[in-house]
Amino acid sequence: MDFAVHSREVGADTVIAVSGELDIHTAPDLTEVLSPAIAAGQPIIVDLTDVTFMDSSGLSVFVTALKRAREAGTTLVLVVSEPRVMRVFSITGIDTLIDIHATLDSALSA
């Protein structure tokens, strides 16, 4: 699966859908979409449902994005349904810092 990032507005939230492998080669593409969304100050939901693999580069993107979102006074929520991707957040303890939901509907209603 090719890597892709798409952003759309859903109510007051910015939903960024990511698909494919999130690694050292694709992490900058996600950062490029996340940065202006954070600067806009709207709540951000990153949907990782279609991410098949994520390494520490992807994790780094979210740690940085969370810090910037907090500084901007907004929120960052993730949607993770792939167990291999969730494991990266769990074993590093990042799942205790970032609000993570299993479905987009759950994240939107939170």
Characterise this structure.
Helix 2 links the parallel strand 3 and strand 4 (76-79). Helix content is 43%, strand content 32%. The protein has helices at 27-40, 56-72, 83-92, 104-109; strands at residues 4-10, 13-22, 44-54, 76-79, 99-101. The radius of gyration is 12 Å and the shape is globular. The chain has a single domain, classed as STAS domain (Transcription Regulator spoIIAA, 2-Layer Sandwich), CATH 3.30.750. It is built from 4 helices and 5 strands; from the N terminus they run ββαβαβαβα. A 5-stranded mixed sheet has the order 1-2-3-4-5. It has 110 residues and is α/β, with parallel strands linked by helices.
Summarize the structure.
The chain has 110 residues and is of the alpha/beta class.
Record the SSE blueprint:
Layout: E1 4-10, E2 13-22, H1 27-40, E3 44-54, H2 56-72, E4 76-79, H3 83-92, E5 99-101, H4 104-109
Parallel strand pairs: 2-3, 3-4, 4-5
Antiparallel strand pairs: 1-2
Question: Which key features would you list for this structure?
Answer:
alpha/beta; Transcription Regulator spoIIAA; globular; 32% strand; five-stranded mixed beta sheet; single chain
Largest sheet: 5 strands, mixed
Shape, per Cα inertia axes? globular
Total tally of structural domains: 1
CATH class: Alpha Beta
Q: What fold name stands as the CATH topology?
A: Transcription Regulator spoIIAA
User: What does the average pLDDT come to?
Assistant: 96
Q: Please trace the helix and strand order, writing H or E for each element.
A: EEHEHEHEH
First-last Cα distance:
30 Å
Task: Provide the structure class.
Answer: alpha/beta
Radius of gyration: 12 Å
Individual helix count: 4
CATH superfamily: STAS domain
Q: State the share of residues found in helices, binned by percent.
A: 40-55%
Strand order, main sheet: write it out: 1-2-3-4-5
The count of DSSP E runs of length 2 or more, i.e. the number of strands, is 5
